[in-house]
Amino acid sequence: FGEENMATEITPFLLSAQSPDANIRTAAEASLKQYQEQNLPAFLYSLSVELSKDDKPIESRRLAGIVLKNSLDAKDAVRKEQLIQQWVAIDASVKLQIKELLLRTVGSVVAEAGHTAAQVIAKIASIEIPRKEWPELIGSLLTNMTQPDRPASLKKSTLETLGFVCEEISYQDLGQDEVNSVLTAVVQGMTLADHGPEVRLAATRALYNALDFAQTNFENEMERNYIMKALSSLVPMLLETLLKQEEDQDQDDDIWNLSMAGGTCLGLVAKTVGDAIVPLIMPFVEANITKPDWRSREAATFAFGSILDGPSVEKLTPLVNGGLEFLLNAMSDANSHVKDTTAWTLSRIFEILHSPATGFSVISNSNLTRIMSVLLESIKDAPNVAAKPVLTDANDSRLVASAYETLNEVVRCVNIAETSQIIAQLLPVIMNKLGLTVEMQIISSDDREKQGDLQALLCGVLQVIIQKLSAADDTKHIILQVADQMMVLFLRVFACRSSTVHEEAMLAIGALAYATGAEFGKYMQEFYKYLEMGLQNFEEYQVCSISVGVVGDICRALDDKILPYCDQIMTNLLNDLSSGILHRSVKPPIFSCFGDIALAIGEHFEKYLPYAMPMMQGASEVCAQIDSDDEEMLDYGNQLRRSIFEAYSGILQGFKNSKAELMLPHAGHLLQFIEVVFRDKQRDESVTKAAVAVMGDLADTLGPNMKIAFKDKSFYVDFLGESVFSLMMTSSRKLLLGHRV
Questions:
Q1: Angle of helix 473-494 relative to helix 499-516, nearest 10 degrees?
Q2: How many CA atoms, within 13 angstroms, populate the side-chain half-sphere of residue 76?
Q3: Where in the numbering of this chain does the Importin N-terminal domain appear (predicted)?
Q4: Is the C or the N end of the chain the one with fewer CB within 10 Å?
């Protein structure tokens, strides 16, 4: 087929399909669809011609590329297989011309066209390379990289293509020689001096996608060392990006700029290479940490904070010991960016490195008072909220947030036996600050947002303090003495009706319920209306999820004293499960909550059984349909299965002493579900533990009737044997690790 008699002029249709006029758009879409259905090979060829021509409008080329991709791949597994078979059935000569056009387009002077062609090539590669039908692809791409006369733009697009191809196929689909050639080209793209920054960046991204291909190479020490030689060139490039801060980068947590990306990448490098990163970044830190330019000081601090999770404690200990006082002093730096990054770095030091169990304590009796005074002084950077309607500017707001987060890490880290007096003194300070926020004058929506942000931070600190002090019998009374005052504060915060505060206040109340136990019952009448608002909050699903968790906390605190509220709570939970709008991540906690409620109210859960069991059985069937190739869905499936088992366990234990026979009709479905989980080798360890636990609860609750339930079931013998072996292996690993420590 020649281009002259194969391709149809589709530019007008592609442009009209993007028209704001619905009539024009609909007619064009119908024409394209008709062409696709009547002659798919010619349709795909025409799209590839459109994408390849630099004289065509970018709008038509863009849509041509999108339609090409969508003609080769789909998220739905059934649809994807249909598209694959359609491509496979096309005449080989037509496919060859399409592929040649796409490879030519990779070198287009219009970068977007080259980028799109790279993605389409990868989709075709995912179909053909496993079938050994496009053996020349890798060689064609490598030629672009090895010929010295090829322009940088072509090398950049080629590296993009290699990256996309590596993302789509398995390293097992290529021969080892091809894998070696790809990795060599990528590493050279990162390191050769004549390659500009755009080519090196494309090569780095390609290496990220090709890491799975390097498995065999990384097993060979010589090749592994060659690949990791990207290191002495890569780290200085990343450190250079840290100096590219933006003046307003603190105004929005969601902003992703060059310096943030560089710091994130530096952290990943540190996790990969460990101690080897330290000598590469410390000269940069030492050279910049005291410079008069704020960008240099901030970049040096950011570099040090970014690499803390990677090197060994032994390597970092002298650096942290030598630099802690310097960092504490930097919390009073004249520049807010420097203070913010310093607070973040301190937080990471306390979170990652403070580990008395391993023999290294950042926080000690000698420096605790100094650390606390610095952090409390930083928190004062926000003006008095009762006196001023405007809380603070964006930079100070970020600093205060970092200071509070660091304070939380300090409270979590400290030895409560040695520091209970200091924590007890901190408690009224934070409570007083929270009280001031609800008194502030609100003039604008901006004021309301800033008020909410500060209240969330304060509620977060109170949650950590409640958990810390209530964990020990010697200090629990400190919380009990001020529980009434704290609950009044939390209820006043709820009255501000800020969803952010709602989350943090809910979490703090959950901690308070755990601490106060049965005494929490006196707060329920006033608190329940806010709890119900949280359970009904479909739009802000995180609030709903946290509220479900708090129901569990309250059940454990009140036991059967929760009964007067159970009808309303169960109605809300069942409505949540039935909702088509509520985010799926809330559903596993709801099933776990069924178990908490049943455990708390025992035989009284009988009235809810006809509603809860169909929901649980329906969800167990959903688990069997989850796409095992989708990592995110696989994780969700594990959460869902674990929560269903937790629900069954709670219900079984709740009925154990009085109405065990109620669960006999449901035993068959439960065992069938456990068997399906047993057959799934991709299950999470936590799912296995939950399944074994529920089998024990089932046997314990049914007693002599268990023989009826387990009749004709043999899988459980293998399952229990496998689980015991797994537990023994885990214990052995922990024992070995313990000896190593």
A1: 150
A2: 6
A3: 28-108
A4: C
